What does this fold into?
Amino acid sequence: QFVSLRQRILSAVQKNATRGDPRSVIRAIDQFCSQKEWAMNVGNEKGCILDSVVSEVNPATVLELGTYCGYSTVRIASLLPPYAKFITLEFNPDFAAVARQVIAWAGLEDKVQLVEGASSDWIPKIKEQFGIKTFDLVFLDHWKEHYLSDTKLMEECGLLRKGSVLLADNVICPGAPDYVEYVRSSPRYKSHYFRSHLEYTKAEENLWYLGIIE
Ligand SMILES: O=C(NCCCOCn1ccc2cnccc21)c1cc(-c2ccc(F)cc2)cc(O)c1O
Ligand SMILES: [Mg+2]
It folds into this structure.
């Protein structure tokens, strides 16, 4: 009977990765998606850039918008200090169900809080629900047309501070032109991009790095 792509990704992890070994989980997903079927994980090339930003920021609080199968969630969680608080938000319950199992296979379920729902509903509730003042790092990888509105919403909710870093995937493909235009022209942000490629392809892509300067 029909097995969804997300289920095939989970099976590839359970078959080829070692329980409790995040790197083997990442490798298993990348092998499956480069050899068998494309999927919208951030991928290894952009993933290495993500790793370097997480290591440099060394965040105590992280928000990820867009869990999907948990690939970037595992990459980020495996680099966080023990006291860190990491919230990842997924809209699609089927993706969230797979992500929970991928995160658990990596042995990182205690490092991550996976929340199901829409960013516009959850962002205003994060402070009281999770006892978080501001985020040191935000990884945007959800609906591209919500990057700008959600960044403004995070500002309004006081979730960002001077020094907060926002990292956005897919600013070229599928693209978030209004977001790029807004942050580039705003004096509040210092922004630059890391040249890369769309996951598992040769198509040009950038990871858009954004530092809040005031
Ligand atoms: O669409 C993409 N991601 C978003 C998923 C839905 O996110 C929904 N979603 C997740 C939390 C969440 C919270 N609130 C609202 C919506 C919320 C996405 C798409 C592509 C892509 C590139 C080329 C193509 F030909 C086709 C697709 C690549 C990527 O790397 C992506 O990330
Ligand atoms: Mg993406």
